Write the structure tokens for this entry.
Amino acid sequence: MGRVLAVALVALAAVALYATTAPAGQQAVTPKQFTALQKRVKTLESNQKQIIEALGVVIHCGFDQGAVATTKAPQYHVTATGETTDFYVLTTSDKDCADFINTPALRNLLKRVH
């Protein structure tokens, strides 16, 4: 009788453990949740498109052009022969890139980010 009771208690404990740790069944998504997810996906897709466009502009205007060696001592200027270069300044001869870089909207955006 003691063995039967012990087996029954172990079986009951196993069922209780399974019931508490088993994954839940499928949960229904409400229309409100689905609409919210659709809105988030649309926003993320829009952000992705804007980021890709911005990277295209950066690559075209920044990395596809040249760079000028400059120094800040004793004042900011292009380095002469024998001077140490402090940093390089990206240059462009594309008027559209220069206009884009100098737009007030871009400067305001950069101020907010920085």
